[in-house]
Design brief:
The chain has nine helices and 14 strands. The protein has about 325 residues and is an alpha/beta fold. The longest helix is centred in the first third of the chain and has 17 residues. The mean pLDDT is about 95.
């Protein structure tokens, strides 16, 4: 099944496994060693079937492994997508190829900063295009289909791998090598990009995103620095103290269970607050909420609800571009 003819999709390449060329068809692990990568134009040429669904316009933004994607790259990519959407009101959507290690972070940043209802489909691969059984071509093809599909509009930034469409807010990478690595926990995925040519949805994200977002990065050249402090049995305040001394703008605590951590760790967070550093309490257990308990509220902490620590960090970075008021930052955590 083909969608409306001549629907335009802008395809932005950033690198990652989906672009790397290994030494052989059996190279599933060392493919980044040589640093040889396909360009987005070369990747698109491998999937001529994408033209059945849209006029695809490729653009190379960066071409790096996902461990080398930094916040300035997020800004560049978000601005570029916003510029293209503004210049081409008839475009159907955008797709982004990305390394999987930081894919969920880039996707969530776009979920908060692309100011448009049109879809942004972010994809990657767990096996490079040079490997036997690669998922690179199928995932690229599916991302274009999802970006071109009218029913994808208004659902925020989407993550598309393994024939599944996931919300950028909820999804996380859960396995180091398996192709079904991206999962959305209790929330579940949104729908399928299936072999019959259909893009089929079953739910819609409820939290604010994209066109309803209050975050405008068009004039921002640098994001506030927010770091994550990891809680564990016996954790002290050493890392937290070092972050504050180094001038961090905000801290997300990846706490135990429901957000709490050892008293020595929490004492460090209190000192950070006293130094004027906003602190968000999250949890590293994978699913579930951190709620506004009496203790957390009395001690002035911001809670992340069910955002993973990496996602809470991104939201806090954007929130700090507008305010340091903990009441306002808490509102943002609960609305996005």
């Amino acid at each position: 099944m083909a969608y409306e003819p001549n629907r335009r999709v802008y395809l932005f390449g950033t690198g990652g496994t989906i672009s790397f060329v290994g030494e052989s068809r059996m190279d599933f692990f060392n493919y980044s060693y040589r640093g040889q990568q396909l360009t987005i134009h070369e990747m698109l040429a491998r999937v001529p079937e994408a033209s059945e669904f849209a006029e695809v316009i490729p653009e190379q933004v960066i071409n790096v492994g996902s461990t080398e994607v930094y916040p300035p790259h997020w800004l560049t990519l978000a601005k570029r997508i916003n510029e293209q959407f503004s210049a081409d009101p008839d475009a159907a959507g955008a797709a982004v190829t990305h390394g999987t290690a930081t894919l969920e972070e880039t996707a969530y940043f776009l979920n908060l900063t692309v100011r448009d209802r049109r879809p942004v489909a972010v994809t990657g691969a767990m096996r490079p295009p040079s490997a036997m059984g690669t998922d690179a071509d199928n995932n690229l093809f599916d991302a274009v289909r999802v970006a071109a599909a009218p029913q994808s509009a208004g659902r925020g930034a989407l993550v598309v791998l393994n024939n599944e469409v996931q919300s950028a807010r909820d999804v996380t990478k859960t396995d180091s090598y398996r192709v079904e690595t991206f999962q959305s926990g209790h929330m579940g995925f949104l729908g399928y990009a299936d072999a019959d040519g259909q893009v089929t949805y079953y739910r819609r994200p409820e939290r604010r995103h994209t066109a309803d977002s209050e975050f405008d990065v068009s004039s921002i050249d640098e994001l506030p620095r927010v770091d994550i402090a990891y809680g564990y049995a016996g954790a002290g305040s050493t890392v937290i103290d070092a972050l504050v001394a180094d001038g961090v703008d905000g801290i997300v605590a990846a706490g135990l269970g429901s957000g709490g951590s050892p008293s020595t760790f929490m004492a460090g967070l209190k000192q950070a607050q006293a130094a004027g550093v906003p602190v968000v309490l999250s949890t590293h257990v994978g699913t579930g909420r951190v709620v506004q308990t009496r203790r957390f509220t009395e001690e002035g902490y911001i809670v992340a609800d069910n955002l993973h620590p990496k996602k809470a960090r991104i939201l806090l970075m954007l929130g700090l571009t507008q305010t340091k008021d903990p009441v306002e930052l808490q509102r943002m955590m609960l609305e996005y």
